Amino acid sequence: MADLKYYDVILKPVVTEKSMNQMSDKKYTFLVHPDANKSQIKEAVEKMFDGTKVSRVNTMNLDGKTKRRGATFGKTAKVKKAIVTLTEESKEIEIFSGL
Q1: Mean pLDDT computed over 30-44
Q2: Cα separation, 95 vs 36, whole angstroms
Q3: Is the whole-model pTM more than 0.90?
Q4: Which of 2, 43, 94, 96 qualifies as a FRET site for 84, CA 20 to 30 Å off?
Q5: What is the pLDDT at residue 96?
Q6: Exposed, middle or buried: residue 24 (CB in 10 Å: 0-12, 13-18, 19+)?
Q7: What is the spatial distance between Cα 66 and Cα 47, in angstroms, rounded to a whole number?
Q8: How far is residue 42 from each of residues 17, 36, 63, 74, measured CA to CA in Å?
Q9: CA separation for the pair 22, 28 (Å, rounded)
């Protein structure tokens, strides 16, 4: 397993209708590195966003979808999603504030 730094763990935020509705409960959804574990994700969120305190991290591994082009079949890339729940005293994550 590669040595992951905290800035390599979080790839990008997930901006969907469901994830935007969860923000009122201080739950934020990110695409993360497939080899990252929950403690690495927690550390990355707390270091990248000042004033945040993570209470829990839920992760899910999503397999790639089967796609086809003509007679050829292939798969899209696998992804790992993390839903990060912040504590009540924590500041909100500001990248989502303008959305």
Answers
A1: 95
A2: 22
A3: no
A4: 2
A5: 65
A6: exposed
A7: 36
A8: 24, 10, 23, 34
A9: 7
